[in-house]
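Dear Dr. V.,

Thank you for agreeing to look over these. As mentioned in my earlier message, I'm a first-year student in the group and I'm still getting used to reading structure tokens, so any feedback on how I've presented them would be very welcome. I ran two proteins. I've put each sequence directly above its structure. The first is here:
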Amino acid sequence: MTAHFRVDVADGVATITIDRPNVRNAITLGMWEAIPDLIERVSHDQSVKAVVFRGAGERAFASGADISEFERVRMSAAAAEIYGKVVDAAITAVQACPKPTVAMIYGYCVGGGLGLTLAMDLRFAADTARFAIPAARLGVVYGLTATRALVHLVGPARAKDILFSGRAFDAREAAEMGFVNRVVPAGSLAAHTYNYLRRVAANAPLSLRGAKLSIQGIVTGELEIEGIRRLMGDAFDSHDYREGVRAFLEKRPPRFEGR
């Protein structure tokens, strides 16, 4: 356990749990600081093929940044700038994770907690989930890294609506605007998420990495064409490519090794 996070690995899936259920999993500055190291750990763990983030319990994914510490850690423009850089570094680290990432969202997903889910590849929500970015009601400007991700995901007009109003919206509306990929009854969300991730984890790691790099580059306009071409070549020269072709011809599930 690290700074109110738990990390568990099973069946190729790492679960990172935000573990402050008594305050609806509000995220402290220390927790933001810990996220890049957590991502580095799961990125280098060869047993991990995919990553899921969730909040402890079912009341909240995260109710946002821990406002109770704002008078100490965001008491001035200078302090707020430092705080913002820490949050941006955490979100950037999640975005850069080479393995597929999914947010499993129960209950409240607000402010910084919502920003954290924006860094992930996919978002699966319980039908009881509630979302909001109340930055305008606190007198702060929402972080640029998270805002950029929000615009890419839902478009500029919807992003303006969310940020201008600070209003809450439910899982159904979140799905309609493209913010969440799945809405599942709360009692079935964990099973649905892990069944999906086990399927992802069974696929070739080089294929997953290549797909993620290509899509991120297309979205951001920072496509590293030569790097992706090298990855394509590595994939064709890999054990997993030969195994995938053999398994297809032999009509059996492939056994990928990530090499």
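The second protein is here, in the same arrangement:
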Amino acid sequence: MGRPNLSVERRRDLTPVLAQTFADLGYRRATTSELAERCGVRENVLYRLWPDKRAMFIDALAHVYQLSEETWADLIARADGRQSTAELILDYESTHHGEFGLYRIVFAGLSETDDMEIAAALKRLYGRFQEFVRKQVVAHRGEVPSSERPDPALTAWAIVGLGTVANIGRELGLLSTRARKRLVGEVGRSLLGDKGA
């Protein structure tokens, strides 16, 4: 029997710290020295786990989705059936969306899209969010397609867009907490349409 690969576990432990550091400083200002300091390790430890800062950033982007997915899975597991999973998630996100500031990683990544690997990671991130939301929209509406409502894929993009606008509103002080709650919760529900209709 082989020895367990501790580097996978170590990366998993350090990635949330990297994510928070990139959220705080952005991609360009977060030096590997600063990343190592915040992780409580020497730089060479980071370079044993990741080939470069770009790889650290890409893992931090993946962490943003993973954290959301884990949170939503926990919500769904505790659901009482009175709401669809889409409604449950919208209600949760209307209060909690962006509270850890990790959306700032995505914003930092958008200024790095000339880097093909970072652009690909952002496409994966947004694609995963959109696909997850699309599945919730389909489950909410039921299997019967309707020509009176937008396609579930487009509805999902619109809901993802609401989250992005809420984050911009938070970051720039354009939307109050109450306005962000209404934007994600109320407008999100209107995009969903009627349950099982």
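From my reading of the second output: The longest helix spans residues 116-141. The domain at 6-192 is CATH 1.10.357.10 (Tetracycline Repressor; domain 2). Does that match how you would interpret it?

Kind regards,
E.
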